[in-house]
TrEMBL record:
It comes from the Bacteria. This is 3-oxoacyl-[acyl-carrier-protein] synthase 2. It comes from Streptomyces hygroscopicus. Belongs to the thiolase-like superfamily. Beta-ketoacyl-ACP synthases family. InterPro entries: Beta-ketoacyl_synthase, Ketoacyl_synth_C, Ketoacyl_synth_N, PKS_Beta-ketoAc_synthase_dom, Thiolase-like. Coiled coil: none annotated. Residues 1-375 form the Ketosynthase family 3 (KS3) domain. Gene3D superfamilies: 3.40.47.10. Keywords: Transferase. PROSITE patterns: KS3_2 (PS52004).
Length: 377
């Protein structure tokens, strides 16, 4: 069974709503810029994909993750025609990697006031929307699609409407950790390119409203199903076998075969291990059909938005299906050997009728999630 997406919302480095984000992605624009949130003297890396809403470079404020989340959820709820002043009884599921960790950092280092109650997104969601049924999942970079999987399960059990969201912002601890495990500080993200040198963090939030029976409301697209697993292969290194297992389960749950997939929205972090593992798994599953779907990786323009990345890609994929337009993978000049035979979109946006899409998200610890989407009928 498929579930209707009746509302979407997003905010990221490239745009304050879904339309602006999608337009900039299709134009091949990158959101990378010189780091704004921290003191440069403490870091060797100098770039990130940030939402430009701080008072000034190097000046940060608490509560930014919550602010982006409220923005995206509000957009999606209004788009779906729901009463944004009263979401009581509607489950709101949030996927995140770091929640309000940046606010804790600012409290610790600068004495910025931030009440402990606001570490939970539910506090602000209740105030803004009277949402009284909120749940936060922290599943690393797969968190958004894990929340989507839970939302699909709730609909299958009889829930009428679910709001699913994902959010993350830069934290100095994670930024510093990533720059120290990469041989050279990256200046941009180049998924699947032989000359890639690592990942840079991005910021963003995305939200969707899923409806069991949309009635006469417009439908952006359909979620056929979501598969999740945890192969626990390694703390940071991904396992192609675990990824392939999640993809195959998603195909089974979604009632599709590799040859049915028109678009692959890959995880594509630009790291040395992740891209090769993902390409190996996709080649294993798709086999002789690997040349059929178009393939793109939007982190080349948004950076890695952690727990928000899966849902940001979801709202972008829905636009791809609706418009028959696919953003390019910026910076992909020489694909890795493991990706040979795949039809990566490069240079400029591709135009082609699209019906079925696959969306990948993989996180530390082997936390894998794969969704199958379908164009609105």
């Amino acid at each position: 069974m498929s579930w209707a997406v009746t509302g979407t919302g997003a905010v990221a480095a490239l745009g304050g709503d879904v339309g602006e984000l999608f337009g900039n992605l299709c134009a091949g624009r990158s959101g990378v810029a010189e780091l704004r949130g921290f003191d440069h003297a403490r870091h060797t890396a100098r770039h990130a994909y940030e939402v430009d809403n701080r008072p000034a470079p190097g000046v940060d404020v608490p509560g930014r993750a919550t602010g982006l989340l409220l923005d995206a959820v509000g957009q999606a709820v209004r788009d779906a025609g729901l009463d944004e002043s009263d979401l009581s009884g509607v489950p709101v599921l949030i996927g995140t990697g770091l929640r309000e960790l940046r606010s804790v950092e600012l409290w610790r280092t600068e004495g910025a006031g931030f009440p402990a109650a606001r570490l939970h997104f539910g506090t602000a969601l209740r105030e803004a929307f009277r949402a009284d049924d909120t749940h936060t999942l922290s599943n690393a970079c797969s968190a958004g699609l894990y929340a989507l999987a839970l939302g699909v399960d709730l609909l299958a059990q009889g829930t009428d409407t679910v709001v699913v969201a994902g959010v993350d912002v830069l934290t100095e601890t994670m930024y510093g950790l990533l720059e120290r495990v990469q041989p050279v500080p990256p200046t941009r993200v180049r998924p699947f390119d032989r000359d890639r040198d690592g990942v840079l963090m991005g910021e963003g939030a995305a939200a969707v409203v899923l409806s069991r029976a949309p009635g006469g409301r417009p439908v952006h697209g359909l979620v056929r199903d979501v598969a999740v697993n945890c192969d626990a292969f390694h703390v940071t290194a991904p396992d192609p076998a675990g990824i392939a297992e999640a993809i195959r389960e998603a195909h089974t749950r979604g009632g599709v075969k590799p040859a049915d997939i028109d678009l692959l929205m890959v995880h594509g972090t630009g790291t040395l291990l992740n891209d090769e593992a993902e390409a190996t798994a996709l080649a294993d599953v798709f086999g002789p059909d690997r040349d059929k779907p178009l393939v793109t990786a939007t982190k080349s323009m948004t950076g890695h938005t952690s727990g928000a990345s899966g849902l940001l890609n979801l709202v972008v994929t829905l636009r791809c299906l609706a418009e028959g337009r696919v953003p390019p993978t910026v910076g992909l000049d020489h694909p890795v050997d493991e990706a040979a035979g795949f039809r990566f979109v490069t240079g400029e946006a591709a135009h082609r009728p699209l019906t079925v899409a696959q969306l990948n998200a993989f996180g530390f610890g082997g936390i894998n999630a794969v969704a199958i989407l379908e164009a609105a009928r």
